[in-house]
Amino acid sequence: MSGTSPDAGLKLNWRFPKTFWIANGAELFERAAFYGAFITLKVYLNRRVGFTDIEAGIVAGCFASILYLLPTFMGAMADKIGFRRALLIAFTLLTMGYGLLGAFQYKSTVLVSLALIMFGGAIVKPVISGTVAKCSDDAHRARAFSIFYGVVNIGAFIGKSAAAPLRQELGLEYINFYASSMAFLALLCTAIFYRNVDTVGTGKTVREVWEGLLKVLRHFRFMCLIVIVAGFWFIQGQLYATMTEYMLRLLGEDAKPEWLANINPFVVIILVVPITHLIRRFKSENAIAIGLFIIPLSALSIALSSIVEGAAGNSITIIGSLAIHPITLTVIIGIALQGLAECFLSPKFLEYASKQAPPGEIGLYLGYQHLTTFIAWFFGFIASGFLLDRYCPDPSRLDPAIGRQRLDAIANGTPLPEIYAQAHYIWYVFAAVGAAAFLAMLVFKFTTGAIDRRRATRLAAGADRVICRHDGCGHDNRADATFCAQCGRALHN
Known about the structure:
Strand content: under 5%
Distance between the termini: 37 Å
Order of helices and strands: HHHHHHHHHHHHHHHHEEHHHHHEE
Oligomer: single chain
Largest sheet: 2 strands, antiparallel
CATH topology of the largest domain: Growth Hormone, Chain: A
């Protein structure tokens, strides 16, 4: 039988049902809301609500990480009640959550607000992507998801671009009001135009989702890969955990870290296709290692800002007469390197993760690859809180005299108070985490390679059975098996 693709001879087009476009419009509003609020969330928790850096890191870390764990469970719920009803609930929660977050700046109410946003966002993720899948056939699915991912990036760009002028002209709370209005537009869009798509036979029960998670957690090799790649997202997440506060504290309120954060998706959009083509014949683990090699360099480049400032002063002229601060320049370079690293890692990570799955369970394992972000953002945001508190503290909690000295230094271009002299050490820590992830990936690559070669040697020697050595199993498997037929865990012996 020939290897022709299912769309051979079929004339492809960009026509999709009305519900497809409505869902993407709602997604654009939701992403504009989320990224606008998220890029300044820790600043808001610190300045308006009164959380310390450490407390804000813990709160934001729990919010961001659980938001990546919940969608699988929320997707099971959405399949039961229908996509339209699920979206109406989700956008109502988001509208209320963002509105309450801006209106009531108390610790207790903020936690309730973030919970509403967390559950609302967790419902939106699987429902919109499910709608995109249901509104396209096999031949057009790649085009459908290319539109979807483009809409996600446009929404993120709009949200982060709006955050800076809102913060500077009106105040931090108005970013949340803006996010609430975007969520409300998504709610109206859904209520008026969205029509249910058929979800019969596509969903899982919550019990099945939970059992799938437990199966994935027992897969030692897959979980090692998850933890290692979490080192990448640990650093990438500092765009939201550290970078905004770092720049505002060192450069003042005129800095626009929200705009600089858009460099990452811009680089990915421009380079991901040519780089994916370039490395198409690379082994997946080699491409992942390249991404993990680049990512600590992004943190290291930001850490070197003090050296650049010492050599060139507090202003560097680039592109003719454009003058920028060394911190701004190194942050731009660091964020661009993050985007470059993502182009190498993300596509090949999904490919490699799929190869770790037992036969027939690729979808299950890919569904839980976001455990990398769950781990990375939980620990990354918490670490950010402690590091900011130690090396780049909140100016409002300093002695008033030091606070005035800081403002004078920013206004006049003179050195900041001594307490900020080691602020760049934060990025050395992040670079060390990235370097550790890179080294761990090398160990993983050579260790798993040795295991696979040993299995191949055993097969070549004529062995026909292998015993599962995991506790409580002992099942007798075929020698060519990668996973135990009894317990489903990887055979490493």
